Amino acid sequence: MSVLPLEVVRLAIDCMGGDHGPSVTLPAAKAFLERHPNAELLLVGMPDALKEAFAWPRARIIAASEVVQMDDPVEVALRRKKDSSMRVAINLLKSVDGAAPLADACVSAGNTGALMAVSRYLLKTLDGIDRPAIASVMPTQTGGYTTMLDLGANVDCTAEHLLQFALMGSALVSAVDGKDEPKVGLLNIGEEVIKGSETIKRAGELLRQAGAAGQINFIGNVEGKDIFTGEVDLVVCDGFVGNVALKTAEGLATMIITIIRQEFGRSWLTKAAALIAMPVLKRFKDRVDHRRFNGAALLGLRGLVFKSHGAADQLAFETALNRAYDAARNRLLDRVHDRIIAALQAQPSAIEESGGADVSGDKATQVVQAA
Amino acid sequence: MSVLPLEVVRLAIDCMGGDHGPSVTLPAAKAFLERHPNAELLLVGMPDALKEAFAWPRARIIAASEVVQMDDPVEVALRRKKDSSMRVAINLLKSVDGAAPLADACVSAGNTGALMAVSRYLLKTLDGIDRPAIASVMPTQTGGYTTMLDLGANVDCTAEHLLQFALMGSALVSAVDGKDEPKVGLLNIGEEVIKGSETIKRAGELLRQAGAAGQINFIGNVEGKDIFTGEVDLVVCDGFVGNVALKTAEGLATMIITIIRQEFGRSWLTKAAALIAMPVLKRFKDRVDHRRFNGAALLGLRGLVFKSHGAADQLAFETALNRAYDAARNRLLDRVHDRIIAALQAQPSAIEESGGADVSGDKATQVVQAA
């Protein structure tokens, strides 16, 4: 078996972001480096806090003097903290004077609203994309996962936006999961084409056209329950609905784990049963462990930005690093670009919005805590 | 302890509806009758199929010659099957020539779209209500449940509709759960008032005004995860979002139970562990058992209609009968009416829609399989 030399993949990490900062991001970075011999890391943050990484091979410390706090308003991150670790890390994705950018992708566990706003401001959106979207994965009962977008970046979407999400999401799944023709479903309240709001029905038409033109593999409407069956690879929805679905799922999972704990903790008898059932319960917990699904992609920007959950621990943050690495190595940015360009050329009217629509400004991208 | 004589409560049951028809509805009806000495039942369906109930005390058979099938389009239920068990049962809620209606509430496990359309056609909406809504309950980790509406009757809602849902839902919770001032949350993508779409922000304003006027107990925005914490009694949302949240929760619950089964079924060792953990797993399953939460209310009509899950078994159908019974006994219809009238008098502009809006017709109520 011949082994091809792997190209170097360089990730920028906002080491100060998240609830735990360097105490989580550094051990995760170290484990990640050991696992990927072709990876290089640009560790961004206050040098004093990153001392232990000074001697690491394939890692460089990039200094930043400020930190965006988890509760900082978007305006503070955008206008006041111009030397924040988040901003410096994102800036490493920009090409300066035509030279290749220093980093291939950036990962931060910082506040989602700030991350989206700063990324959008610094990187700008790709041609043909009105609004960036947030994509993440949910586990399925077949042991895999379903990618979903948008999860909260856009509260009011047109049918054209939903088509753009389908194109970008297909590129993401093909890059990160290696599925060339990911199955795309439109989240609706029934499988029949007559179901849903006017926007959803129109989006269904656009997705069917894009499917017929071979731009995506559209299989039709899906319902909330289909997120977990593994029958589709990608679920497309607006950010309001996606965020509600994501948080409903999180809330229910938390409730179920709480109830299982309560019931097994009732008496010495149930505690003994828990001991015996432990290995099984642990495997169950592993399969639904949200840490295995950490790392949301901010899609549609001229640069690869990944958002880790703010409360991520080492394992979770490493998962996010792995996702960013896979995306960079498999040229996600080019894939998004290619799909959008192909769609633009085939049906310019379908993907571009009609003249009067509001496609920019604060209203267009109201970023929320999506991950 | 003195026992007050209970008033008679009379339920009409569409015995033919649902996946199983009389084989489920009749045993449930019998168990219900035994439990409620002051209840009377009007059992609607093909007399041949209901023979076993002929001799029951406090039950009468009302003949109908047709059955609305689970996959019948709304038009068939509405225009063709004029002697369906569903339609005859709903008709028993209508007062004829000023006399009291024969039944206080009606329960059907038939197809949701047909049930909503026929109910709306026969009963009409209450004054001040533009659109009926579907309300149901979800379990919480504190052992209680949260009522949610709308779950799929209305895909496009205005802020005024959401206020109406809050008023009707508060009446439902107070009637069925005995909570006088149920805590109302508006489903959103963040707790801050600046979050959400324009419609949601405007709905937040209306709900705050109604809260300040003492018409509801509004506690602010809630997120998907809050459905399961038990911190609010009522979650208000549009039918698209509500339906997606409901089905996402159903899908995740199914996945989790599937995974637990798979993991406990792996080997003789895990099967032995399952035997030992059985009593605990059973209590867990009981606590999240959807049969304990069956029975969605169709609110805003001039009559009390309850929808059982189509796949309901005897226990589940009995739960729906109990909910309808509680609603009738605690005068839910009057409570909805009173709340709407009070709100109308206090802020007529807030509850009534602006002139041009589409508040009727097919577009307004696009009913889906919500329960």
TrEMBL record, chains A, B:
GO terms for molecular function: phosphate:acyl-[acyl carrier protein] acyltransferase activity. Pathway: Lipid metabolism; phospholipid metabolism. Pfam families: FA_synthesis (PF02504). It is found in: Cytoplasm. Keywords: Acyltransferase, Cytoplasm, Lipid biosynthesis, Lipid metabolism, Phospholipid biosynthesis, Phospholipid metabolism, Transferase. Its EC number is 2.3.1.274. It catalyses: a fatty acyl-[ACP] + phosphate = an acyl phosphate + holo-[ACP]. It comes from the Bacteria. It is an enzyme of class 2 (transferase). Belongs to the PlsX family. Homodimer. Probably interacts with PlsY. Catalyzes the reversible formation of acyl-phosphate (acyl-PO(4)) from acyl-[acyl-carrier-protein] (acyl-ACP). This enzyme utilizes acyl-ACP as fatty acyl donor, but not acyl-CoA. This is Phosphate acyltransferase.
